[in-house]
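Hi Y.,

Following your request, here is the sequence exactly as I used it, all 319 residues.
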Amino acid sequence: MKRAFVCLLALTFLAALPAVAAGVRTIQNGIDVWRTAGDGTTFVDFAKNPIPKGFFCAKSESFTGRVVLQGRALSTGTPGELGGADTIVQRLDDASFDGKGVATTRVQLRALQLESVAPLKTACGSFHARVSLGGPQPVSQMKIIRETEVGGRFEAPIQVKFRVTFVPVEGSPARRLELVRSFTLAPATNATWGAVVPKKSFSRQATVLVDTDGDQIPDTYLPRTSGNFFPGLNAAWLKAARERQGLNKMDASGSMSPTPVETCTTDTSYSYDGYGSYQCNAGPDPQCHPEAEQAQHCARPCPPCAVTISDANPGTFNP
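Below is the corresponding structure, written out as tokens. Let me know if you'd prefer a different format.
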């Protein structure tokens, strides 16, 4: 019997639950999944560290311009299971809050795949620019500040070692040129977080197979869960989600539902012990991480989805 799944995103501020609910004391480790728009806010600027003369061919001049980037969906073991995401940051440790409401964890960029919005024109022809990780990544410290029982802000400077690969628009795609650069992206000014309550608990942690070196071949297993942490979740986004679903209206009993439920449009035929896909179209506003004048990365967080059996077609789920 064909099984139907409904992909639901249960994002709950615990303060909206009954008073007996406890606040968040520990942030669980996990991954944060992001998608980058090609709207000009993400770029690499070569003004201070130019591409050298003769790089593209003997007659090419030094390049000091800006390359505007957009996301390119990461390749995964099952196509599409990250909802078109192009960036993954992993929080490596569980982080417990101290008496001042501050927790710390190590963070590391684990996957990145961007490409130029338009080809780069040179005296040697035009080239697509593609950005991926340039080998093992440095580990940074992330500070999470709890401002309410169930949310707050965070500071996460991300150290990045990236590779820019230039692929000819015409001619042999095998003629690739590469540059490796490093810098640190400063924390986003609107870096807020909120608590995520899973739809159900799971007996084991699922993993997702992801391409981490930009060759379009999935090569590394990462934890699939985001833990109980969702970047970008704040009161304004929660209010908008409730309004979209009419949850600010009272029901017949005179009460309002405390939990916004987003219906995900991604295919959920692939699932691991109840874990579904990520949804990159309904997340909060982008967070922008600047690096002086040389680069900036603006990306929208992708909410995780939880898979349940559809009431319209009940059956037994066997992961």
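Residues 5-309 form one domain.

Thanks again,
Q.
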